[in-house]
Amino acid sequence: MKLKENYSQTYFWKHFLWRLALIICLFIGVFLIGIRQIVIQQKIELKANQKQVVLADKNLIEHLFKESILDLLTISESDLFLQFFSGKIADESIEKSFKSFLLKLLENKEAYYQLRFLDTSGMEIFRLERRDDEPYFCPRNELQDKSHRYYFQDAIGLQRGQFYVSPFDLNIEHGELELPYRPMLRICAPVFNDEEEKQGINVLNFDGTTIVQELDEQLQEYGGANYLINQEGYFLNAKDTAMEWGFMFENKKDQNISSFFSEDFQTINQMQQGQFESDRGLFTVSVIEPFSRLNHGGINYELVESYEWKLIAFVPAQELTYGAFLPMEKLLVLFFFILALGGSLVFFYSKIAWRKLRAQLALVQSEEKLRIANETKDRFFSIVAHDLKNSSGTIANYLEFIFENYDDIPENERTVHLRDITFAASQHNKLLYEILDWARLQQDDLSFNPQTVLLKELLEEQLQQIDLQLKNKELVVEFDFDDDFRVFADRDMIKTIFRNLVNNAIKFSYRKSRIVIEGKPKAEQVELRVIDFGIGMREIDAQKIFDLSSKVQQPGTEKEAGTGFGLKLVAELVAKNGGTIQVESELGKGSSFIFNLPSGK
């Protein structure tokens, strides 16, 4: 008998160990291959995305400037324009219509900051500009002499069919830089009369704020950094605004592309359009030629000087690592959990085989239990397995560590470990109670005794139980309802609902913040809100947070762990009491859990 027992034990361990080794090797291989494929795919998508972003920005910038040039040329070639400024329009309605056209132009084109006509001496004949974001015709006493400005001196010699574009720089008013800084570019086109005599030049001041904002929005949406540089290599737009417009300040003359990307400058400088990766990171480069040869009214217009910028989308090397593409901590937890699960499955499979040697009846009974368990596991296991792994894994790992190293661990460290084990066990125990409540609720085994409940009295009782948690994060709970505010519901269920919602608010609130509990009557029901001002959540997560099959879970503001099961229990308890629950949340601003219950009036 003893020999048979020893044989069966040997049989069990032999089959268990080789199956476990096979599962471990297989899973590690699949896991590593999967991670590699995910990273490769995400990197391909990142590169393609960067190219699309650069192309979109290039097309947008070139379109905006081409449109502005065509608008200016249309005005400059207009007979109505010449007649208007030579005083030849006798009909006041036509004059009014032309002014209205110019006003509409500035009103509809937000990037147009000023439209001016300068005569051949450089004197402003008219100036239409934005004041308080509204188009405004300047009176004669505000018109200025611009003959000393470089753009007039460069543009006054233009011939028909030519146009001039000033450097993209910061706007100067009355000899001083305008504050806050306003990026400005001036487009000039000559104006001729019917006798081909030059009458002056039209000047359109293009506000580059639109371009800068577009590049900044792309940065916020896609990460990394966008840089726009001029022909001299100075930054017109950069992630660090202190690097911008270096050519306009004596103390920033060295802040250019060659100094900032010194190792990669030559490659960037020689590249017209493309992408490359270096030790610094991923560069996506495209040349922007905002002003090229244009055809308007059958005339080919040509820029008198070459003009091009370079757009660079940059992703730092640290954002290209495996860790940047993958949530490594979560993957490691998942890896060890599945590994443990696989080991457990192998263990049970081997044990079943071992038991089969001893008794066929035990195997039949085991299969029957497994069949019954499988009927409920699909809905339940997806939640419980994920939530139990953290607490049980922590307890097991700590106990194993202490058991194996007991004599080598100082007393004070043992105390710390035991405290952590106690906390993990408490979290584990809390989840078990929630699961038991949920299971009883599914079986209609949870007593339901609705009654009129004085809300303030119940909440004060509950807050006393979590007073230590509130003090630990220096949180304040505020009530926003009348003292005699009442609901009609099961008292114990209401306690569980508020306990879970307030605990959730504590978890995701920042230190020294506040939690607000609101209540207001609503016909035959009351509306209750538990509001925190913490980290909030994405809209897609808010939509699934009460779904029993979802796995929405994240650490608190101070890395507090949670079971993720409490909110699902809350949703069912609210429904049991004849109410509904929803959540409104915004990342970085907090969450508001809103639920309705029958009124206790």
TrEMBL record:
It is found in: Cell membrane. The keyword Aminoacyl-tRNA synthetase does not apply. Pfam families: HATPase_c, HK_sensor_dom_bact. Its EC number is 2.7.13.3. The chain crosses the membrane at residues 16-35, 331-350. Residues 383-601 form the Histidine kinase domain. GO terms for cellular component: plasma membrane. The keyword Phosphoprotein applies. It comes from the Bacteria. It catalyses: ATP + protein L-histidine = ADP + protein N-phospho-L-histidine. It is an enzyme of class 2 (transferase). GO terms for molecular function: phosphorelay sensor kinase activity. Keywords: Cell membrane, Kinase, Membrane, Phosphoprotein, Transferase, Transmembrane, Transmembrane helix, Two-component regulatory system. PROSITE patterns: HIS_KIN (PS50109). It is a multi-pass membrane protein. PANTHER family: HISTIDINE KINASE, TWO-COMPONENT HISTIDINE KINASE. This is histidine kinase. It comes from Sunxiuqinia elliptica.
